[in-house]
């Protein structure tokens, strides 16, 4: 992973399509490359990296025979609900439920199904008892 150190202070960069991929406006990126330090963030398998949403970042093509995966999580405050429908979803309040709600839903869902749902009841789940045996 490569980042342009301090580029998050440049403000919000608009993303534009280049072919099938969206990316930051090339003119502003080119100017940032000329002015800011390029930092290589070498990481090990399983490492995580957190950075400001406006930090310019990229990675080179994966030329190894191993796949490379990324997980991108974006959070938005409920008070920042979009004013109209667009590519980003509107805020939907979450309904708080009791801790045992997964058991109630799971049992109801699988009532007519012969699937093994023993994981819904820890005392009937063999994997849970074998884990307990190993930790005692």
What proportion of the residues form beta strands (DSSP E)?
5-15%
Structural class determined from secondary elements: alpha+beta
The order of strands across the largest sheet is 4-1-5
The helix fraction, in percent, is: 10-25%
Would you list the SSEs in sequence order as H and E? EEEHEEHH
Total number of domains: 2
Secondary-structure topology with pairs:
Layout lengths: L1 E3 L10 E4 L2 E4 L1 H10 L2 E3 L16 E2 L42 H9 L16 H10 L1
What does this structure look like?
The protein is of the alpha+beta class and 136 residues long. It folds into 2 domains: 79 residues, no CATH class; 35 residues, no CATH class. The chain is built from 3 helices and 5 strands. It has a 3-stranded antiparallel beta sheet with strand order 4-1-5, with no helix packed on it. Strands 2-3 form a two-stranded antiparallel ribbon. A hairpin with a 2-residue loop joins strand 2 and strand 3. The longest helix has 10 residues. It starts with a strand and ends with a helix.
Write a concise synopsis of the structure shown:
The protein has helices spanning 26-35, 101-109, 126-135, and strands at residues 2-4, 15-18, 21-24, 38-40, 57-58. The protein has 136 residues and is α+β, with helices and mostly antiparallel strands. The protein starts with a strand and ends with a helix.
